[in-house]
Write a structure and sequence with these properties.
Layout: H1 2-8, H2 12-19, H3 22-41, H4 48-54, H5 58-80, H6 89-117, H7 124-130, H8 134-156, H9 163-191, H10 196-201, H11 205-228, H12 232-257, H13 263-269, H14 273-294
Helix pairs in contact: 3-5, 3-6, 5-6, 5-8, 6-8, 6-9, 8-9, 8-11, 9-11, 11-12, 11-14, 12-14
Membrane topology: Multi-pass membrane protein
InterPro entries: DUF350
Main location: membrane
Length: about 300
């Protein structure tokens, strides 16, 4: 008992808080976050600040919120991945900056990939800027957040072999993760009970919200497997299992939460974004549960 109280009131950890170089890593992380906004501005055909403030464009706001969360997730992943113990503080900070730049580049690349292959039934720029389509913004937010989860997992799970091999590992996992998103989009279209692209294009916020959350759920499962095992074969087997479980979670919501209604009717016919939120939360919750079961 006395030893327990001594641990409670130990002051040595307080000294560590004020002497740790962590504040430098935090400062570098904040600087990189500040640079993320103008970098994203270079990749868009609209003025980000004007859309967010002058035009009060909520669709761009939702997408940007996902982007910012994704950037912070990436930087956190880089920081906790651990540097080389033999490196100096300066080289370690340089490594953090380098990996953040690589990760941010992949995050922006994912936006282009998903516009071309995941949301390819309509023009994303028009939906965001002209129609101010919040559903489109929700899907983009889901891709940003989900991609950030997978990139962070690949950084922490690199197998060594030098910087070149670590970058190759990250690129391979990134490509597989994007293919997983595209596969989910194709299967979701066939199983959700309505035309997902058509509903999003018709400004159905619920359709975009449910789909975006399901993308995040898939990313949670893929990133968990990347952290557990470096085998690409195991990952190829895990992705179909993940898709099956996530699609099954929709059936679970129908059976248990909404026994007197159907998700597809509530979302497509009634545009009930509350039900869409339940579907998305169930998908993410089931993904977290399955991931924890295998961890």
């Amino acid at each position: 008992m006395n030893e327990h109280f001594q641990v409670w009131f130990d002051t040595s950890s307080v000294v560590g808080i004020f002497t740790s170089p962590a504040i430098l890593y935090f400062a570098v992380g904040l600087l990189l976050v500040l640079l993320a906004k103008p970098v994203k501005g270079l990749t868009t055909r609209y003025h980000l600040s004007d859309e967010l403030t002058k035009h009060d464009n909520k669709a761009v706001g939702v997408a940007t919120a996902g982007y910012i969360f994704g950037v912070l997730t990436l930087i956190r992943g880089v920081l906790i991945s651990g540097g080389n113990p033999a490196s100096s503080l300066g080289r370690d900070l340089l490594s953090v900056a380098l990996w953040t730049v690589i990760s941010l580049s992949l995050l922006l690349a994912s936006a282009w990939i998903n516009r071309k292959f995941l949301l390819n039934q309509f023009e994303v720029h028009k939906e965001l800027i002209t129609d101010r389509n919040v559903g489109t913004g929700a899907v983009l937010a889901g891709t940003y957040i989900g991609t950030a989860f997978m990139i962070s997992a690949s950084i922490s799970g690199t197998t060594g072999g030098g910087l070149g091999m670590e970058i190759l590992d990250t690129l391979v996992y990134f490509v597989i993760g994007q293919l997983g998103f595209i596969l989910l989009g194709a299967i979701y279209q066939r199983t959700c009970g309505y035309d997902i692209h058509g509903e999003i294009e018709r400004d159905n916020e619920g359709a975009g919200l449910a789909f975006g959350a399901t993308l995040i759920a898939l990313a949670i499962l893929i990133s968990g497997q990347i952290r557990r095992d470096d085998s690409l074969v195991a990952l190829a087997v895990w992705i179909p299992i993940s898709l099956f479980v996530l699609l099954g979670s929709r059936w679970l919501v129908d059976l248990v939460v909404l026994p007197d209604a159907r998700i597809h009717d509530e979302i497509a016919r009634d545009r009930n974004w509350g039900v869409a939120l339940i579907e998305g939360a169930a998908a993410i919750g089931v993904a977290l549960l399955l991931d924890a079961s295998f961890s």
